[in-house]
Amino acid sequence: xxxxxxxxxxxxxxxxxxxxxxxxxxxxxxxxxxxxxxxxxxxxxxxxxxxxxxxxxxxxxxxxxxxxxxxxxxxxxxxxxxxxxxxxxxxxxxxxxxxxxxxxxxxxxxxxxxxxxxxxxxxxxxxxxxxxxxxxxxxxxxxxxxxxxxxxxxxxxxxxxxxxxxxxxxxxxxxxxxxxxxxxxxxxxxxxxxxxxxxxxxxxxxxxxxxxxxxxxxxxxxxxxxxxxxxxxxxxxxxxxxxxxxxxxxxxxxxxxxxxxxxxxxxxxxxxxxxxxxxxxxxxxxxxxxxxxxxxxxxxxxxxxxxxxxxxxxxxxxxxxxxxxxxxxxxxxxxxxxxxxxxxxxxx
Length: 348
Ligand code: MRU
Known about the structure:
The protein is of the alpha/beta class.
């Protein structure tokens, strides 16, 4: 199914993180090597590695890179240095909670270390565990969500929540891969996902690699396709899910959810438990990343808008829980999500 490694730690404690440079896809398939915390921070910030779970896993390995940079000989000083680098990595992107979740786990490990000599091994073990768990969660999401893939139906997805966005086979695309494995026939429509085209560049590429029937559409075509009866289900990933089920995902997801509701089409969110942020009550508390105006006003270094025009460029929006038919997680499916149902499944 997945014949590439989105992220790959090479070597032992003195190793480095190899990433597919997703800025270059689909025209070039190249890797970049992150050997310093700063290189990894930049890779996350500039979307060389992106997608909530992948960002979390990458940041965990970033803490291992921080451990390589320690000059101190006392454990307390080493811990202080790593804490500083964790804060730095946490400032790379604000919305995907997986980043903070993974860094929190690494920090917890850091405080368990008794001797400075054990630091690197202990952190690398934890980062690899986070990686392996992510692979496992994706597989389970695939199994739990497979029955939502309509036989001979059309499925719309937005952005990229596939293998490129995780250590495993993806979240939103996992049930699709599972359905393919089971021999189901269906058709996927991929929203191109302006402004950075994760749908066109990444999802279309990934599904074609997997020999899944995929058709690329512009974001503004989804409603028309729904009206024609070509879409039978929508499935998307998530960057952060609040306690009440409100879900942040790539900008445009909210519009798709409204369209789905208007056409009576089920709207599914697929996400691992690491994407839930039960500390926040609803979507209004989710920090939304705003990105550079150039991403909207330029295309491949060509200006597509008048110089100096005001630009609004939020990278994410929030879909209210009432627009979500079900959230598919590795622990099970939450139909018509509510605070109680989420609490019971994610944090019993
Ligand atoms: O800005 P990106 O490309 O990191 O945004 C990614 C998304 O919005 C994904 O849908 C989300 O992170 C889920 S990935 C499994």
